[in-house]
Input
Amino acid sequence: MAWFGTVAVNFRRAVVLALGIIGVASGGAWAAAENPRVAAERTMQAVSATPANAQLAAESLANADAVLKRAGDARTAGDHEHAALLEAVALEWAQTGRDLVRAAQAEAEADELAKQAAEVEERLARARALLEQTVARRGRAKARLKAITASPALSPAEGQP
Output
């Protein structure tokens, strides 16, 4: 009978391990879906990690914090249904702040790419102008060479004084 206990313990461990792997693979979506308060606090903390990001998303973070306090008050008062709704609203505010930061970062990257594109266009215009000048010089040199070869050739004896 001792072996049965070992099999049962190993089975339980395997199930816990499998659920843990599934939870990690899903990106913790279960935890976020089950507890919006924790997800909101985690998102707020991540956004607030950088002072520039915290300043950019200050209004959204303040709203999320205020709503979380209201949710806590609702839980204290025994209104768990509205507390859960308020926590979901707080999560939305926190995610809005996160999205504002992401949008600002994407906008900064787009501005940098636009500057780089303008520099490339400027170099391209200079290269085209240089190419046009080179083609024109080549044409003039070709015309001069044709004029020289078309004129009566001087013999070496005639060309000397």
Summary: The first helix runs from residue 2 to 25. The chain has one domain: 34-148.
